[in-house]
From TrEMBL, chain A:
Domain of life per record: Bacteria
Protein name: Anti-sigma factor
Protein's organism: Roseicella aerolata
Keywords noted in UniProt: Membrane, Transmembrane, Transmembrane helix
Transmembrane segments: 90-108
From TrEMBL, chain B:
Lineage: Bacteria, Pseudomonadati, Pseudomonadota, Alphaproteobacteria, Acetobacterales
CDD domains: Sigma70_r4
Name under which the protein is recorded: Sigma-70 family RNA polymerase sigma factor
Molecular-function annotations in GO: DNA binding; sigma factor activity
Family: Belongs to the sigma-70 factor family. ECF subfamily.
Keyword Transcription regulation found: yes
Location of the RNA polymerase sigma factor 70 region 4 type domain: 102-153
One Pfam family here: Sigma70_r4_2
Transmembrane annotation, as ranges: none
Top-level lineage group: Bacteria
Keywords annotated in UniProt: Sigma factor, Transcription, Transcription regulation
PhyR sigma2 domain mapped to chain residues: 7-60
GO terms, biological process: DNA-templated transcription initiation
Length: 285, 174
């Protein structure tokens, strides 16, 4: 027992390490010697060991079973790949939707076409605005579904704290379906989805603050897949109308929307469409 | 392929550990599958080369804890909706294909953190420090839980019989 003076006294940890066979030779000898002097502790240690063996025996059949096919690494990896592909496709579809619906693409395109907008926002400038719209103080939902342009206009005016024109495109056969607020560095943008009565054709009206760009006439951009965007600026905001429609038809609708916006929050009757739709315009892009 | 072979060499132990945690064969294999997906998906995050087994156990245990939280949330929600406060848990669904030995029944009475340590140290043969890493606790905590768990299991075994009551089991779940 003289060894014990140089070594820390035997503790509970030693007993478990003894059971788990994790003692080095010197300590093992000490613990063995100590256990011989302490039959109660020795009984506990024996019980722990028996208990460990019982657990091992009870669970051994589990580990002895053949590995099922679904747990083979090759199988798991294949499943993982398939899932990632699905997720990637969904993400790609979401981006596509965003570009289509929000008309982000046309703005970027328009900016490039005009040689770039001075003071274009850094890519993360939208983050704070997104938070403002979607997270902080979002007392109301950031999107709305309505049956009439006026309903959406009322909702949007409440969201933006200023009157907003939701163009009445009924004369062209389109009625508003829903509206979304979208973040931009200059403040909230609005996207309104219209659908053609009696068909699946969708149309987007998009409007965002563009404070440092002078008023500009109607221009057009073609996108791959037949989508066409007409857009214009009024010195405060940029506006766009996007749909997969023949240019001539969409141009007429864009004229209608522009007229509605220019007229301000009280939309006039929309009969001018036919009269103005034939006017030729230069189409850029 | 070497990598796959090394992972597959650990699968029997992972299945055993998963089963001992969940006590349901299918749920256990689901847990192993989820864990393998996680492991393969985050292979690049793995640190030391020799640590594969402990790393896989860590992922499995964390996946299990996540799943249990999900399960607990779901049970709470169900309980709120149906007014059933005492919702059944996966552990109450025994696997009849397995002979439940007395020691496994007694094991059920232990709090899960003690149970996991008894299994990792005693059955899976992990070292104390490896176990500490798997569970994300200090080694000292592993030692004290190991001590308490073994002592408790010993008393239960000495008392013998069919005492591990539903009450004890509910405590494990909560």
């Amino acid at each position: 027992m003289t060894d014990l003076r140089d070594q820390p006294p035997i503790g509970e940890d030693d007993l478990h390490a003894y059971v788990d066979e994790r003692l080095d030779a010197a300590r093992l000898a000490m613990v063995r010697a100590w256990l011989e002097q302490h039959p109660e502790a020795a009984a506990r240690v024996r019980a722990f060991t028996a208990q460990r063996d019982a657990l091992r025996a009870a669970l051994a059949p589990r580990a002895a079973e053949p590995i099922p096919a679904r747990l083979r690494v090759a199988h798991v990896r294949a499943g993982l790949r398939a899932r990632r592909l699905r997720q990637w496709r969904m993400a790609a579809a979401a981006v596509l939707l965003l570009l289509t619906g929000a008309g982000a693409g046309w703005l970027a395109h328009g900016n490039l076409a005009s040689g770039g907008v001075p003071g274009a926002p850094p890519p993360m400038a939208e983050a704070a605005e997104a938070h403002r719209i979607f997270a902080a103080g979002a007392r109301q939902p950031s999107q709305a579904v309505a049956s009439a342009a006026e309903d959406l206009a009322t909702w949007l005016a409440g969201q933006l704290d200023e009157p907003v024109v939701v163009p009445d495109l009924l004369a062209a056969g389109f009625r508003p379906r829903d509206a979304h607020l979208l973040p931009t560095a200059e403040g909230p943008a609005v996207q309104v989805t219209y659908e053609r009565i009696g068909s699946d054709t969708r149309l987007s009206f998009y409007m965002r603050p563009v404070p440092d760009r002078p008023a500009d006439k109607l221009r057009c951009t073609d996108h791959p897949g037949g989508r066409v965007t007409y857009y214009w600026f009024d010195g405060r905001r940029g506006y766009a109308v996007t749909a997969t429609l023949p240019r001539s038809e969409l141009r007429g609708i864009a004229f209608l929307a522009e007229r509605e916006v220019r007229a301000g929050p009280k939309p006039p009757p929309a009969e001018q469409l036919i009269a103005r739709a034939e006017t030729p315009r230069v189409c850029i892009g | 392929m070497d990598r796959d072979a090394r992972i597959e060499a650990t699968i029997p132990a992972l299945r055993r550990f998963a089963f001992s945690l969940l006590r349901d064969r299918h749920a256990a294999d689901d847990l192993v599958q989820d864990s393998l997906e996680r492991a393969l998906g985050s292979w690049h995050l793995r640190r030391a080369e020799g640590d594969l087994k402990a790393w896989l156990f860590t992922i499995l245990y964390n996946t299990h804890i996540d799943g249990r939280r999900r399960e607990a949330r779901r049970a709470r929600l169900l309980g709120e909706i149906a007014g059933l406060a005492e919702q059944a848990t996966p552990q109450d669904a025994p696997d009849h294909a397995v002979q439940f030995t007395e020691v496994l029944r007694h094991l059920d009475a232990l709090p899960e953190e003690q149970r996991a340590i008894l299994l990792l140290v005693g059955v899976e043969g992990l070292g104390y420090e490896e176990t500490a890493r798997v569970l994300g606790v200090p080694v000292g905590t592993v030692m004290s839980r190991l001590s308490r768990g073994r002592e408790r299991l010993r008393r239960l075994t000495e008392e013998g019989g069919d005492t591990p009551a539903a009450g004890a089991r509910l405590r494990v779940v909560g």
